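Hallway conversation turned thread

IA: we were arguing at lunch whether anyone had actually written out OmpA-like domain-containing protein end to end. Turns out nobody had. So, for the record, here is the sequence (711 residues) and right after it the structure tokens. Reply here if something looks off.
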Amino acid sequence: MKKITYTLCLVFSLICIQSQAQILSKADKQFQSYAYQDAIELYEILWQKDSLNDYLVKQLATSYRLLNNSTKTEEWYARLMKSSNVEAEDYLHYARALQANQKYEQAKHYLERYEELAKENVKGIDLDYIADLKSAESRFAIAPISGNSEASDFGTAFYQDKIVFSSAKAKPSLIKRNYRWNEQNYLRLYSSNPLQDGDLKKAVLLSSDLGTNFHDGPVCFNVAGDEMFLTRNYVSDSKRAKRNDEGVVSIQLYYSKKEGKEWSTPKLMSVNLDGYSTGHPSLSKDGKRLYFISDRPGGQGGTDIYYSERNGDTWSEPVNAGEKVNTKENEMFPFVTENNVLYFASKGHAGLGGLDIFWIDDILEGKTVNMGAPVNTSQDDFALIMKNGKGYLSSNREKGESFDDIYRFEILGRLIKGQVFNSETSEILGNSKVSLLNGNGELIGEMETAKDGKFQFEISDVQDYKLISVKQQFTDGAGEVLALDLKDQTEAYRKLFQAPDNTLNLDGLVVYREDRSPVEGVSVIIKKKGSEESIDLITNPEGKITCALERDAEYAIEYHKDDILSKSAYISTFDVEGDRIYVEEEVDKVQVGKVFVLENIFYDLDKSNIRPDAAIELNKLVVIMNDNPSLKIELSSHTDSRGSDAYNMALSDRRAKSAVKYIIENGIAKDRIIAKGYGETKLINHCSNGVKCSKAEHQANRRTEVKVLEL
């Protein structure tokens, strides 16, 4: 009530005593001095008298934006959008405010408008991606610490068994002013002992000797806890603020060494650049690399993340972390884990709004990953630190503006995700089956990929995992994810590669025709058409063989064994679906008195000469006799009942003798084979003289048989 009365009195006094030009001059002076809250009060007084003044609207929109008040920023930029004095950057700022207020479709529209006018690409708003980020809620546990104050608390750091953070909660007794930018107290460093569940309750000043009259923090420490890298406002030896050419009191990095129980006086580091801000340090576990932020020239834009390498007592020239990390907008609060994973906050990478927290495992080759909700919100989320999947972050999600709180969190579930590729063409390979196994080879999950080849598994345990991808006509893909890769990461991404496989697996079986029992010890010879090389196999006790064959080829298969009739067959691997082909062969036991039909022995009409197709079959008989040197046979020829009995007898006799002659000419002794023509005396069906039969029935009687006479 007192503030309202005071403001009314102030309005009346200003209107009565000062001209609007004087009020505007004072407001601009406050704005230029970064006293945005004071400037807002004056601009709003003027706007009440002149609501069509575009300059006032823009100054109010800018002031609220710099105070991080997204609700008011949206309100004033919305007014500005109705004017004719809109610049490209205004569309960007309006879009970011809309995004922070979760009005993503509107934000998408104004971002596209900015890109159109500025001729510059920014990370756009993908509504599906935002939905995906929000789906991560169940994979984290997060809660504010009990020790948050009503002012800003943020920027945690590990320090031995304590947590150190920056807070504006208490005003040192000798300081009689606030930080005019947001009217809060200047930052001081506090330490707190975490409870078993990670909560922070009581906090005390880290050191009463470290404080200045300006901001101190954020900070980081080495593993031993005897080195401190401190962000603070740049002050002179007389402890007065040093401003740059624009009148800004920049932040700088300082170094302090612990001497006994006390910290040495912080000294400026060589990585600073005069006139520009440098701060937000994070030191690698081995103490050799220091990450920090800076707005120095030569960056991607805004504040960028840099790093410097330690060489004894000196530090190398700062190196920009590169475009995989830095964007046109602000990147802040780097943190490097024990496993050298870099976490940072960014406004430029695609996210939910405001500052979002990201990580990357390799700043040169890695992929930047947004941690998603609930770690990130549409407000500012930043300053994450973590060990073994547990840690702290800072956010203004509850209070808004510049009022930050510290949150503790734990990763409950992680993702193992990736994509399958053709190793020869590097193209995406879709429709593979991907399996996830633990270190013991136990199946954890499996899924079929779509055309995009992407896969994803959610896991709860940090351990070693194996990935296997399978697809017909391709070799299997394989990958692994180590527990070390998962410890301080929300997900692991792997590419699996599968090569086109021009082979088929042949599964074969040899059985006896009589009882279909398996035949062991059969020599199986497989030859590809047009090749002299062969695949030589022996059937196992189950009568089985297996081998790899090429696709789109033709093969001849021969079966040999002393006590069977050798056989041959042909298979084709053209147009075979799947990755296997199955063949089964029935063989006959060689027994005295047993009769076998030689298939495909054909003769021209009224002829007895051996045709090429018949020669192929007779060659098989030659092989059988060579395989069984003591075998003696009768080769007989049979006709159907058409024609005279005498004619058929003579024809069958000529044909039998012709076949025997061919076999003898191919190396078989003549005393091992007898030719016999039976004419139509041994019909195997009812088609005798005068009986009307089909061609097929007559064909059955026209045959060449082999009878075993002696073994």
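OS: looked through it. The chain is about 20% helix and 35% strand.
IA: good, adding that to the notes. The radius of gyration is 44 Å.
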